[in-house]
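fyi for ur records
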Amino acid sequence: MNRRMLKCIAIIIIASLIFGKSYAYGLHSVSNVCDVESSIIKYQGDRALDEFRTYWTLFRKAVIEKDTSTIIALATFPIQTRGTFDSDPIIKLNKGRFKKTFFSFLESFNGIDLEAGTNYDFIKNKKVISERVVNNRIRIGDMVFLYIKNEGWRLSFLYFVPAKR
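which gave:
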C-alpha cells in the first residue's frame, strides 16, 4: 500500500470517528476522499476564501437577477440535496430538475437566520462571507459549495427536500 493510500484511509477513519454520518454530506461519498485528498490540505485558508468571495459575488448577483443560465454554470451536476437530518435520503438532481427545485429553495424559509426570511432574502443580504473553507467546501446557509480542481467553486449541495415529480 502506498503512502497516499494510507493517508486516504487515515482521513476516512478519523473523519468517521469525529463526524460520524454527518461527514458524508461534505464528501458526498467516502470513495471521493481519495480523489480530492491531494487538494484538501492545500486548498484552505486565505487564498481559498478570497477565491470563494469572488465566486460568491457572481453567484449572489445571478440569484438576485434570477439568471438561471449563470446559476447552472456556477453549479456542478448532479446537485445533491436532502433534508436536515443525516438519515434523510440524498436526492440527485439533473439540470432540468434543479431549475424548479432551486427556485422553490429560494422561496422557502432559510432555517438559519430568523431575520433573513427566505433563502432568497438570505442570499441577497449575505454580502460578506465570514465562514471558513474546510476540505475544499464551504457551507453558506443551507448551501454547500465545492472547490473543483480546474473548474473552481461550484454549488454542489442543498439542504432542501424537493417536491415530488
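The chain has two domains: 1-40, 43-159. thats all i got for now
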